[in-house]
Amino acid sequence: MTLILSLILNAITRGLGRLSRPAALRLGRGLGWIYGSVIRHRRSDALAALCRSLPDCSETERQRILKAMYCNFAINYVEILRLAGGADDDLGQLVTIEGEEIVQDMLRRGKGALVLTAHLGNFDLLAMFTAQRGYPLTIISKEIKNPALNDLWMRLRERYGVKIVLSHNSMRACFKALKGNGLLGFILDQNRPHDQGIFVTFFGRPACTTPGLAFISAVTQAPVLPAFIHRTDDGRHHVRLLPAIEPPADRGEDSLRRATQQYTTIIEQEVHHHPDQWIWIHRRWKTRPKPGDKIATPADG
After folding, report:
1. Which of 97, 220, 245, 290 has fewest C-beta within 10 Å?
2. How many Cβ atoms are within 10 Å of 100's Cβ, its own excluded?
3. Which residues of 6-39 are buried (b: 16+ CB within 10 A; e: fewer)?
4. Is 190 helix (H, G, I), strand (E, B) or coil?
5. Nearest-CA neighbor of 240 among 96, 127, 50, 59?
6. What angle do CA 238, 65, 17 make, to 5 degrees?
7. What is the pTM of this model?
8. For 171-191, what is the mean pLDDT?
9. pLDDT in tens, 94-107
10. What share of the chain is helix, strand, coil (3-state, %, to 5)?
């Protein structure tokens, strides 16, 4: 079965690789409409999350955000699979960057830097662009359940120079990447099980979040560099780097919680800027706090 799926995926990627970029974007928009309006995958969950998170938006605006989110989601996959199929897009022409001097300043310290990002825009392209630009980038990633798709995705990342560390038992590899004065990418907007996270506030509600980013920063004294990518009106991409965040004062629970809240608040602000490019279908608030759990707020961060 895996072999058959690999053959199918290879055929799809080769076909997409032959498409012009405008045609690929049109295809992505069409697939996004099918995904959101016909299949309607988690549409009710996404709409409920939008209603709670952006209460000041009108129903018309929320529907527009939802429609655009599904389109962007599909376009992201079409773009990545098209590159896997051999499309020769020049990422240097496709992506603009703002604030690059910040990462250069951080790396001059010699301690590496932790890159804070989220499932916003084409985040896979952000990693590929960063590595292709010459920065030694390692990302923490889960294995995709489908072996054929996992193999394709990992090979593409490695082709662009992205080093992969699997999330399970990854701490030693993370320390090694930073010790070599590299960048370590960290996506922080995923729900975690109760025994693997701490609670911070995200769009006004408790969200269980890994303290791993804050912990690694505290141990290694590597700064945290917020970096986000979004799709522009012309279908290209813009990367924005924000001022670096110094490591937590110590490894204590309260310090890690405050730092994690600070990172989460930054993500929330970026989602506010581009709400149609964040994955509202992710059940970000699935894990609920239990009696006695401490919950950080933006005032703490």
Report:
1. 290
2. 13
3. beebeebbeebbebeeeebbebbbebbeebbeee
4. coil
5. 96
6. 50
7. 0.95
8. 95
9. 999 999 999 999 99
10. 50, 15, 35
Pairing of strands 237-241, 224-231: antiparallel
Q: Note the pLDDT tens digit of each residue in 261-294.
A: 999 999 999 999 999 999 999 999 999 999 999 9
Burial of 99 (0-12, 13-18, 19+ CB in 10 A): middle
Give the pLDDT score at 196: 94
Interatomic CA distance for residues 100 and 93, integer angstroms: 16
Residue with tokens 């490894």: 251
Q: Phi and psi dihedrals of 23, rounded to 5? A: -65, -40
CB 125 within 8 A of CB 80: yes
- Choose among 213, 229, 271: nearest CA to 99: 229
225: how many CB neighbours lie within 10 A of its CB?
Answer: 26
d(CA 40, CA 42): 6
DSSP characters over 62-108: HHHHHHHHHHHHHHHHHHHHHHHTT----HHHHEEEE-HHHHHHHHT
Q: Which amino acid is at 32?
A: G
* Cα(175)–Cα(173) distance, integer angstroms: 5
Under 8 Å between Cβ of 96 and 236: yes
Q: What is the mean pLDDT of the chain?
A: 95
**What CA–CA distance (Å, rounded) separates 218 from 214?**
6
Beta-carbon contacts of residue 44 (< 8 Å; ≥ 6 apart): none
Distances in Å between the Cα of 266 and the Cα atoms of 58, 81, 91, 285 are 24, 30, 26, 17
